[in-house]
Design a protein that fits this description.
alpha/beta, 2 domains, globular, about 290 residues, 5-stranded mixed β-sheet, single chain, D-Maltodextrin-Binding Protein, domain 2, 3-stranded antiparallel β-sheet, 10 strands
Length: about 290
């Protein structure tokens, strides 16, 4: 999950970490470079500010590797991370579909290897997915990935280039489920996959289960009936040194994380992507509710 379908044009505000002078009295909250990460990082930041903590925002860092490097250098103190991303992209381990088991593995490994601690995860599970329209699902009898594997020779797939190469992308699906030999596969820019689906240029699109488009369009996410894909629960990851100095961070964020569900994340993503709301405003509305 290095590239996500929810990038915003925040490039001009990317912090140049090698040249920044950091406020060491502040809790420095980071984010990656897509909508959901911006919004959840804002939720963390505003929650801490509500208790009187001084927070410095260092958002739009880029990839997972950049965020981890910033943590290890002490440039940021915490940011939202996904269990599946940590498992596959950082630790290079096989997918684990069970949320609790995936969390236990990444929490133990991050503490041992990086001195980074995982706080309570959210129930929100932003897993990889395949999505289709209700009309296509009805036409071909699609409800699960097994259904899609069998029907694939009649279907057109819209996806991003990365999905065609990742072990938990199309190659992994084909090995694990069998089938998945689509009639046609076309790659698109991240933002154009759903347009191809909704305009009838594709029958199935690769997706993430909390994409804003799923909340706003007539789409169906196909159920992973054989539990191939890893759990991708989001949680705050915090430098152990930071948490030792400010243990209240855990108390505050552990109270907020359980409120972030799949539906909540879909709705917040849709507000930013389709209604052009500011991530900070969306986070504030969430906390107010």
């Amino acid at each position: 999950m290095i590239s996500r379908g929810r990038a915003l044009a925040f490039a001009a505000t990317v912090p140049l970490l090698t040249r920044c002078v950091f406020d060491r009295s502040a809790v420095r909250v980071g984010s990656k470079n897509f909508t959901e990460s911006f919004v959840i990082a804002e939720i963390y930041a505003q929650s801490l500010e509500a208790t009187g903590m001084h927070v410095e925002r260092l958002f739009n860092l880029g990839s997972t590797q950049i965020a981890i490097a910033a943590m290890r250098r002490g440039n940021i103190d915490l940011y939202p991370e996904y269990t599946g991303t940590a498992l596959i992209d950082v630790l290079h381990l096989p997918p684990i579909s069970n949320s609790h088991a995936a969390f236990e593995v990444v929490a133990r490994a991050f503490k041992q290897r990086y001195d980074i601690l995982w706080l309570a995860p959210s129930p929100m599970n932003d897993s990889q997915a395949l999505a289709t329209t209700r009309a296509v699902a009805s036409q071909y009898g699609l409800a699960t990935l097994s259904d899609c594997a069998r029907a694939a020779p009649r279907l057109r797939l819209a996806t991003i280039q990365e999905f065609l190469a990742r072990p938990d992308g199309l190659p992994g699906l084909a090995r694990y489920y069998g089938g998945f030999r689509f009639r046609e596969v076309r790659t698109y820019d991240i933002a154009l996959k759903y347009r191809a689906l909704l305009e009838g240029a594709a029958d199935v699109a690769s997706a993430f289960s909390t994409d804003g488009a799923i909340a706003t369009e007539e789409l169906v996410v196909l159920r992973d009936d054989r539990h191939f894909w890893s759990a991708y629960n989001v949680a705050p990851v915090v430098r152990a040194q930071t948490l030792a100095a400010r243990p209240k961070i855990a108390t505050v964020l552990d109270a907020v994380s359980p409120r972030i569900t799949d539906h909540v994340a879909q709705t917040m993503n849709a507000q930013v992507e389709h209604s052009q709301a500011d991530p900070a405003d969306v986070a504030a509305q969430f906390l107010k509710r």
